[in-house]
């Protein structure tokens, strides 16, 4: 459990296990604790690095705006601090967008790539979902895309509870709500900034790597659940079609949070893929 000074921020990270490096990049609003179902297994085979993105957990929470390119440079700076020249990379959701920018901006640093439940560019359905979510929080989105909202009136835990139905299957929420709230409340105990979270949202909505995907030259696994309501699986179809040689795997019944719901299958697919990389 350590902190690296990267550019102008202090970035919290943990390293588990030994072997070839494996960098895990988490999604919007969640900190490194959200890898709780992956780290024990992955660290048996790899030197597994997890960290808190800017804006959450124990990492600095500077004012926005943020971009996925900036957050990819954060990740590259962490690799520098750890003297890791070449690593496997797994990114989920926003983490998958950061991973795209990492391999495009720093191609020599990435040995292989896993892009889970993510997209190369948001389409109208994603924008509509964002607008609905902001409206539920009492805010609005301007024609220029700026989120206008009274941050003082937002209950962070209510925000996470609002996101649960979009991210997980109903049966899983009913059975595992205490576990889910325990994991997500971890992001609150180190100081929560709604302003920083909205800066992450801005990074997600402005992400656009679509026309550069053909520049990716590392072995790539595109992984999604076929019941993902937050980032529908057709976005993974696009990623797999445009990244040369990419392999696409769809988990039957998998939600957006399938690394929580079906960690055995999620982990197995990733470890099998990583084991095939020469």
Provide structural commentary.
This protein has 278 residues and is α/β, with parallel strands linked by helices. It has one domain: 3-Layer(aba) Sandwich (Rossmann fold), CATH 3.40.50. The protein is built from ten helices and ten strands. The strands form two sheets. It has an eight-stranded mixed sheet with strand order 1-2-4-3-5-6-9-10, with helices on both faces. A two-stranded antiparallel sheet has the order 7-8. β7 and β8 form a beta hairpin. α5 runs antiparallel to α6. The model has no long low-confidence stretch (mean pLDDT 89).
Features:
single chain; 278 residues; alpha/beta; Rossmann fold; 8-stranded mixed β-sheet; two-stranded antiparallel ribbon; 10 helices; 10 strands; 40% helix; 18% strand
Low-confidence stretches: none
In sequence order, what are the helices and strands, one letter per element? EEEHEHEHEHEEHHHEHEHH
CA-atom Rg in angstroms: 17 Å
Measured by DSSP, the beta-strand proportion falls in: 15-25%
CATH homolog superfamily: Alpha/Beta hydrolase fold, catalytic domain
Biggest sheet layout: 8 strands, mixed
- Strand order across the largest sheet: 1-2-4-3-5-6-9-10
Question: Can you describe this structure in just a few lines?
Answer:
By secondary structure, the protein is α/β, with parallel strands linked by helices. It is 40% helix and 18% strand. The mean pLDDT is 89.
